[in-house]
Amino acid sequence: MAKEKVFGICKLCLQNNELRDSHYIPKRAYSMSMAKSLPNSNPVVLSQGQVKQVSDQLRGHTFCGDCEQMLSDRGEKWVLANIPDDQGEPFPLQEALLPENPVYIGDGINLYAGRKIPAFNMEKLIYFGMSMFWRGAVRQWKTSFGGIAPPVDLGESYEPIRKFLLGGPFPEDVVIFVLIHNLKPAINTATTVLRAKDGLASFYWFYLHGLGFKLYLGKEVPKAIRRLCSYRSSEGFIIMDREFGKMVHEFMRDFLTANELSPKMKEFIKGPDPRKKPPGK
Ligand SMILES: [Zn+2]
Known about the structure:
This protein has helices at 27-35, 65-80, 92-97, 122-138, 158-165, 223-226, 242-255, 263-270, and strands spanning 6-9, 16-23, 43-47, 50-53, 59-64, 104-105, 109-113, 174-180, 190-191, 194-197, 202-208, 211-217, 237-241. It is an alpha+beta fold. Strand 10 and strand 11 form a beta hairpin. Helix 2 packs across helix 4 and helix 4 crosses helix 5. Bound molecules: zinc ion. Zinc ion binds at residues 10, 12-13, 15, 17, 63-64, 66-67.
């Protein structure tokens, strides 16, 4: 039986059009994990106050076909081709950083000049990151059995980010970080957009198979953070940050019970293999 067509206002172009059954977390990453039946690769979602991995996707009629295509062409497709398909599979972006000299080495943090590394398409990475944060805010994302993704509030930045995704300028008062997981292999999971706070400011973040993004909003974002922005910095900073890796690990460890983790994942969360050196060291 053919699915009934759904019409409405597309959240991105704001035109009345036929709407696709859009996914919050990129569809290909999800269907790949489903195809291989890897329960550990399912996105993490907040359900009745608890964060769980879900085996069905967060979806809903949200964007028209043209906008879906644009989101894919301008970011998602390239990003999915450059992150691992599965735990331990090749991770082209992490591999590309290994022979590079960081432009800055701090305590547990390495900065690389993304715009000088041919393997990094900064435009696509930034577009993808921005699109995911914004997707988190366009609607309440639900699974078919009632799981609800944590809400995302972009405040005054919502509309400038929508315009950016349609080809407008990068919004004022928005700072984005592109991060590559510091351990090899990178933990293979996907999160929805989540809120967190560090010593300097609060931010949103998400993680997708080794690739992470942070988003800081507002005029109060400290200068120290602004100058590291992957978009604004002339180098196009790519960040390998031990603390970010730790945050992803702690998130997985704290919110998933042992029987929800595959043996591979359990072993990984216990800690890195001391025989394997972390990249970038
Ligand atoms: Zn549209």
